[in-house]
Ribosome hibernation promoting factor (Salinicoccus halodurans), 190 residues
Amino acid sequence: MIRCEIRGENIEVTDAIRSHIEEKISKLERYFTNAPNTHAHVNIKTYNNSQGKVEVTIPMKNLTLRAEEKHDDLYAAVDLIVGKLERQIRKYKTKINRKLKEKNPEQEFFAKLEMDANHEFRGEEDDENTNENYIVRSKKFQLKPMDSEEAVLQMNMLGHDFFVFNDRETEGTSIVYKRKDGKYGLIETN
């Protein structure tokens, strides 16, 4: 959930202004699978010529959304700012999509399998010496249908190293993950 911290300079933040801002900013939550618990810092200023300026900053782990708008009508300024923030999110998603298209998924998949196989072989000896393989936390969540590009965007927006989702194309469960080299991998199940 995105919570709004609203501050006014030379203006009193009325309940009507507050509810309009909160309603518009909450529309950004649709771009996130699990809406991040973050704060939108909203600053409203008015000037002698009755023109107002609205600034919105939403800091997240891997992305900071920021927009400002000057307008005679503060309500219109908030509407324009939400449009700017939506374009920033789409631009970020396009950037992620472009990076995904540049990779060779089959080569990365086999490299990951080989790395996992080598790790499991070495791990068998370690397991005999230590008894540290136990689950310390368990989570349940519902998988949402999406494509791999959207899953990478969601993973980055949440700040995770992997993301499990229902693949819209194959209708199977898939996993996207961030590799050590900064690129992304996709694991598909049958």
Q: What stands out?
A: The radius of gyration is 22 Å. Residues 120-131 have pLDDT under 50 and may be disordered. Strands lie at 2-9, 38-46, 52-59, 64-71, 145-146, 162-167, 173-178, 184-188.
